[in-house]
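Narrative progress, year one. The postdoctoral researcher (J.K.) led the effort to move from monomer predictions toward full complexes, under supervision of the PI. The following entry was the first complex the group processed end to end, covering 1203 residues in total.
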Amino acid sequence: MRIALNVNGEPREGDLWGGESLLYLLREGFGLWGTKNACEQGECGSCAVLVDGVLKCSCLVLAASCEDCQVTTIEGLGDDPVAGAVQEAMVSAGGVQCGFCTPGFVVVMTELLKRHPGADDEEVKQALAGNLCRCTGYARIVEALKRAQVQIA
Amino acid sequence: MVRGVGASVPRPDGRAKTRGEFEFASDLTAPGMIYGRTLRSPHPHALVRRVDVRRALALPGVSAVLTASDLPGQAVYGLAKVRDQPVLVGVREKVMYEGEPVAIVAAESPERARQALGLIEVDYEPLTPLTDPVEALIQGDGYRELVIRRGDPGAQAPVVVKGYYEVGQQDQAPLGPEAGLAIPSHGGREIDLYVATQGLHVDLDQVAECLGMERERIRIHLAGVGGAFGAREDISMQIHACLLALATMRPVKMWYGREESFFGHVHRHPARMWYEHGADESGRLLLVRATIVLDGGAYGSSTRSVVANAACFGAGPYRVPNVDIWCGASKTNHQPNGAMRGFGAVQSCFAHEAQMDRLAARLKIDPVEIRRRNVLAAGDELITGQRVTGSAPVDKMVTRCMEIPLPPALDRAAPAALPGGGGYLADAGRVRRGVGYALGYKNVAFSGGTDDFSTARVTLGLSGGKPLARVKSAASEMGQGLVTVIGQIVRTELGVDEVELMPADTLVGDAGSSSASRQTWMTGGAVQGAAQKVKSELLRRAGPPAVELGEGCVLDAEGMPLAPLEVLLETPIEYEHEFHHRPTQALNENGQGDAHVSFMFVAQRAVVDVDLDSGVAKVVQLATVQDVGRAINPLQVLGQIEGSVAQGVGLALMEEMRVSGGHLLNPSFTDYLLPTVLDMPEMISELIEEPEPLAPYGVKGVGEPALISSPAAIAAALRDATGLDLPRIPVSPAELAGIAHLAPDPRVVAGQRPLERVVPARVLTPVGEESGDGVERGRILERG
Amino acid sequence: MLARTPDTTVVAGGTDLMVAMNFGRIRPERLMSLRRVAEMRTIEVGSDTYVGAGATFTQMLGTIEDPAMVLAAKTVGSPPIRNAGTLGGNLATCSPAGDALPPLAALDASVVIASAAGERQVKVSAFMLGPKQPDLRPGELIVGVRWRRAGLAQAFLKAGTRNAMVIAVASLALVLDKERRRVGVALGSVGPTVIRAMAAELFAQSWLEDRDWRPGTPTQAALDRFASLAAESARPIDDVRGSALYRRHVVALMARRALERTCASL
């Protein structure tokens, strides 16, 4: 089946079989490789995207249900200043090692700071609880978020 | 040099990673690419009677279906020069573990490949799997046994404590699953493989053998690696992808989803350990006897080395005059086990640290004090007889660890602070806090006479009129930050700020695998060596009075700039260097020998809160003091420590591959639980920098130590909070609530081989060879 | 439409269905997405609470006030999961580990089901016939869930091995409805379906009745009795997430703690 949606501000069309996930469509269909597949079960957050502005695990979103949706991936955060502050802080704070979880974290962190820039420590951790990292132990990712908060304020 | 050795330089690939622009192996594409998938045995042990691929081949969109009868080269692969693992299990051969590959397909889409797998008909005759690692050793099914014997193995001591301990099977679970892309060329006479791996040349050896092709016709390129932690030392899809690419003459991409990944790589050896510690009344160790049984699983992998490590470090970083440690690994019908961060030392550390606490309790000596009375220092002899010639600031580390401030008391009014978080299960009034310590150590680089050298090439030229240094190395960057360190070393040696790392591939000499915490030392040494050769040439070209380099210039003896490097680089300068560590010896039949290059030490303290009734626990703080020699990049070193602590929290409280009858019950992140941000303690880490002689800049390795003793420290804290024995990790809430207890395995005594102990007490059904008394002697494959 | 093609699989948030699809375990002939059916996302809070089957947990957390449901919704998965998961999905999947199901049962909620033939309502406890066996006939669609507001004396506790994103080893929802003089106790992950611990409910009701629903601090004896009755209702098994022994132990513990906490707010 064919589906038309808007990805990162551009109209896109994809051919897919009915049960395909949005994650698969974004990567294999549209060549947007930034969103990652680490578990295909919604247990790791590496596939985080925004669908009509709402944070979702794209591995659990049926691509076929995304007709006319606005999807934003890591590639689409582009020159957004909040995303830029998050990205810069992630590098300077040491929140990036292998980087596989990083796009998912950047999407989640950016969404949080845009929606609730004054999030406290507990709210930050609750917001990040759905993203797994195997390399860093998380401390420097949380530190990066705090630095970005300061930068944006 | 501003961005040189010692600075917390941000990693050069960091920006791309935050923007989703960094290409991992699973992101690769090539024009005309098709997809490969693997058919795996659902049985842990079975005879393959028949394999029929005709229906799969007939499916439109399927380009190839290969079985063991299609293999062009050697049919087996493996590590450490032991080739025991089949590329594909063939007809009339036996499946040895659940998930073992039987066939591979290539098709137009992943979905089509999945459908093709469903059309391959395999007749299995299931066999009874051997799943008990102790029973396996008794029967003689093992990879290696090793004895460390020193002093008087029969020594007596006034105070003796005994214990039985278990460590469950941990998975490395790197977030990036197995992936790679094989591209054939020259009509199939050559092939390029892009793969996420820990060792390009290690892979090349095996791929060349199994393709039946000369090494020169194969190029292996490092693709972006999404973490490894030991999971990528062994071959996964490398040979399969190349076989399919050559059979179809198309680029073939293979990747494993998370579930398949659990079956597609080795895991940490689960361990059963029986320990006996003897001391005098003042707590000085007199003897350690131990028997360590590791489950090696179906094939050898790096098990022989893990056995050596578990035994060599089996008593911990202490002076012990009398030692009798026996370690063996069984061959069972479980998935093969192999390298995981810590490599045998994690398992024995859990046991020896529990033993030290037992001694402390028996003697009513403070647990930290009893350790301090026994810790190693530079110049001491290890239980293998080797004298510690490098740095060993263990006592200082223990002191520093104790001095790190404890966390504030539990805020009983904040539900989020309680163990169990948002489950609201815990009751503040029933939460008890515990504190525990643990020390650990292991080797850096490979041991036992292995010469795991590294090679690097440095080229200094001009780019846009300015000096640019290029480094070529086959070393695998897996996230640990080697790419940053390499740049820092070149900057320091050459005084040049612009450094570019070329793609890692097998077109340059072997760098050895990214394992054993060795790359900063070994590839750092190779890069330093090559850079120093370039420097010599620069100074030769400059002529006197130039004696040094700095800030992009040649300098005189007072450090004054004489000329910019640009004027000396009309032609570029290129040198390669092969860096070797000092030679080591193999261990003798008593496990004695100068076997290790050097050692990394660690001291940790854990603070935990436990709700005594429900058994839910939270690690509140984990303090680490680590002996790093020299921190080339302190920020990255801290990142390694913190990542190790997270894996230690996982092994202590929640990570275990649950296996029953040879079947893996939890191959998913739903039930193989990794710590989330809400499970992490406050981490305080301190680096002790006492330079290591003979190492570049005095470095040691840093990647493993904080995982070696953190599970032991957390377990010690849990025991302090609950008063329970807790002989097993991961510890479950049921155990912490005091309603479940582990019964020790009664079959073995510390310090003895299972065979010898069991022979007089049991009657064995003779199978195969018999000795005069009608009892099978067994088929240990390698002794010592 | 379901009446015409009853073998259609319905999908809302996809948090259960897509896992099975991604792993190749199911390949439904037909899928119907409810994404655009706005009516299914309505939430009404009055003397009753009504939650449309397509409303997400995040939407619920912003609106509903029933403490047991709020606490349960907060523990579902993770933020992106809560942005997609729905009560309708929890009910249709009908797993005893669905976090929202014990509170619904304890609140004595009713499932509203529509078909070409009209609408019917069935109590949540009766709706869950067995593991993955909801009382849904071909051509039927869950459109919403409704329950009476039951005051603030409610609790939800969940036992797991990790502090986030965890499938319950056991869970318990307790509702002390002073206005209607009714107690609801429901257990999750300790049986083939969510279990209403009726003996514990009856005990608590009569115990509260004896005290005119002003119990003060419960005695140890009352807590013991309530806890053991709740544990006796559990039918736990050993599985990879926990043992039957531990599950029974922690059900008793959760019952005791839930009663203590809720009595304090009566």
